[in-house]
Amino acid sequence: MSGERGVAVEFLSKLLGQLKEIYGKLDRTKKIIIASVLGVVFVAFVVLFSVSTEKANVVLFADLPSADFGQVTKKLDEMNFTYSTSGTTSVFVRPDQRELIMTRLAQENMIPKGIPGWKLFDISKWTETDREIDVKFMRALRDEVKRHIESLTNIEKADVEIAITEEELFTEKDNPYTAAVTVYMAPGYDKLSKKEIQGIMYLVSRAVGGKLKPENVVVTDEYGKIISDFDNEFDKAKEEYTLLEYRKKIEEKARVQLLHDIRKGLERVYTPDRIQIVRLNMDFNWDKVSEEKEEYTPIEMEPDNPETPYSERKVKDSLVVSEKSAKEHFQGHGWNPEGPAGTEGQQTPRIQGERRPVRKIR
Q: What residues pair up with 226 in beta bridges, in sequence order?
């Protein structure tokens, strides 16, 4: 073995020596040409190696209408993201930027309509007839949405809960899906902007589909405070809310708060990846109770002077709540049989009446 190795080394030494001898006999022009050719070959080899080792772009959107294709590519140019296209229907991006791009497009409400959530996040679609498989699909979708939200620089961690409801026989009786997102800010960041919160709501809504509307996505911070409760294009003005819509909003706030408290309690015992809350139902009593109250306060005759250390306030001891007056009318002599002995009081009323004029008393 050592003999063969020695022969190979000797052959290479002779070959190298011959090449040096031939190269030394060349003139200066030929030497420059050979060096240039070798340099070009080396650069081409390096470029070919880097291209072959670079990860291929992944699909961002496919089968886009021409209008959506133009809007998406224009927005990517504005955001300075690198992308490639195939015709006028498909857009490809770098795999390490896909999640961030999807989240940024959601903030601008630029995700094309008509793309189902499983295709949007590149998840294999299972059948929706089996309830157990449907829950697994939602769990996988939840994890994908979670990763997309966490791609934002100012978010360190995110928890996503999607509550799916059982389908009713009649479509009009179906309860819409709801979702709760809890975000944990990265060090150095205080809060999310309104656009970022709207982007999260829209991203989760588009991921699930038509049964989850953006207004049914509640975003809270790490302390359980709802940060998505603001008037925007998803919400109607509060003055126009019907009573039923107002009740649903209150119920959802209470449900999200309880969901947050339950998760916090479970995280003291279990790791977050072992916690999965599929559904949380709460029953509210909306019975209307009316109460009539009548209060009487004393009349203040003299107010208190706040500049003095004692009170000058004077109030009336009694307060007239109701008052009734009566008047009597009669006509006669007004006899008075009383009096000391020997005076008119001892005389009969008839005698007195004959002496006095008739009076009217009211």
A: 220
